[in-house]
Amino acid sequence: MLKITKILVANRGEIAIRIMRTCREMGIATVAVFSDADRTSMHVRYADEAYHIGPSASSESYLNADKIIEVAKKSKADAIHPGYGFLSENASFSRKCAENGIKFIGPSPEVINQMGDKIQARLTMIAAGVPVVPGTTESVKTEKDALDTIRQIGLPVMVKASAGGGGKGMRLITEEKDIVSLVRSARSEAKSSFGNDSVYIEKYISSPHHIEFQVLGDQHGNTIHLFERECSVQRRHQKLIEETPSPLMTPELREKMGKYAVDAARAVNYEGAGTIEFLVDNDLNFYFLEMNTRLQVEHPITERITGIDLVKQQILIAEGHPLKMKQKDLRQTGHAIECRIYAEDTDNNFMPSPGKIHNITQPLGLGVRTDGYVYEGYEIPIYYDSMISKLIVWAENRTEAIKRMKRALYEYKITGVKTSIKFLERIMDTDDFRSGNYDTNFIEKNKTELLAISKRTHESEDMIIIAAYIEHLDQLNIAHTSKGMYPAQNRWKKYTYQKNFERL
Ligand code: MV4
Q1: How far is the CA of 440 from the centre of ligand 1 (A)?
Q2: Catalytic: 294?
Q3: Whole-number Å distance between alpha carbons of 116 and 136
Q4: β pairing state of 209-217 and 238-244
Q5: Model confidence over 91-134: pLDDT tens digits?
Q6: Which of 145, 144, 473 is nearest to 135 (CA)?
């Protein structure tokens, strides 16, 4: 059995800190790596050791596999945790780690490749008996090939990049006359984005739910699932809110999908934490979409309802320990919701809003967790993702969890940069979210309401006056500290409270 005593975290931001927190609890030393732009970042301060790895651009730092491995060797780290994004689903990085005697915390390069190639993944799932979206099982070769296939499946269809995921190189085809041009443009986007022009075709599932199952597999062939996450609140393939259990789920459907999720992971002898993504249509038919071979952003909601530390499980699995828990012992307790807080201007087409954090007051109290990394005076760099924090709440049921999320969002105050907090509060107030009756079209469907209200709030003269007053006090450095509330802040809060609060 491998004994891990030091882990290099090949990431930045909230996830780097999230991983290091578990390491600290386990008595494992931590090594941070950082770019030019991250010299003053929190993950650097948190770690036991930190090493500079290059310029700000990720391509020259957090994606520099050789440099990171060099640091791991120099610092005598036994293992590398890749977090999410960056090198987390890079098979050649996983291989290089192994070649250098460093344990990559995640699956083997073969499994990463097998799931990274979406056509391969479909074939694997078909062989394992897992339902996939009807469509092609090999890449589309010629225009005639595409026409024949689409006539067989029937319009509408989706053309997708085999090396893709997350919406890149994807086209919806609704009319026969567009087939040739859309297949061509999907192919060229695939080529330029992934260096691979292989595309495949699937039947289009309209207004689906995006539901994913968390899985864990150890090195001894034990595989379990940790239930589902509902991830349908998305905007342009960027998730905004996730919750578990899914409001759509029934015990029977969960049992069925959970079994398939475990079958999917077993089909590749999956080692570590992974996610099986499904599309679920309005008649509750479900189809395997993709497998993510990493820890995901939204993992905390699963941790909250199962009581399991997923990072700890990843580390124990990497050391070679067999999973301690059995499927039949796992329970979903209560309801958890995560809101992703982005530094962006929701009134200006969700443009990133980098800059200096002036004040930050984070929500606390019963049932609240924040996974973040920014602090007062920190300057958010332009180079990386604009997600600055995740707000996770738990309560005994969904209605109470929504109330708690509204309370926590109300407490969350960030000045200096624009954030998505107000927009998230608006989502909590929509009938569609509150009823749990929403799918991947939710943001588009409620766009007018969500944006119109946020504009009106910002443009209200009272609000501008109050905001200016708070800003004035902030500059005098007397308002809005993390230690207490001041009259100006209370006025602001009362105003939004009366306007937006309704009993659920
Ligand atoms: C689909 C689909 C409908 N039918 N495939 C978007 C991201 C990529 N990973 C898969 N995506 C979709 N694939 C078929 N055959 C609809 C989507 C989709 C979507 C999926 C999950 C969550 C949000 C979405 C938003 C728009 C489209």
Answers
A1: 8
A2: yes
A3: 17
A4: unpaired
A5: 999 999 999 999 999 999 999 999 999 999 999 999 999 999 99
A6: 145
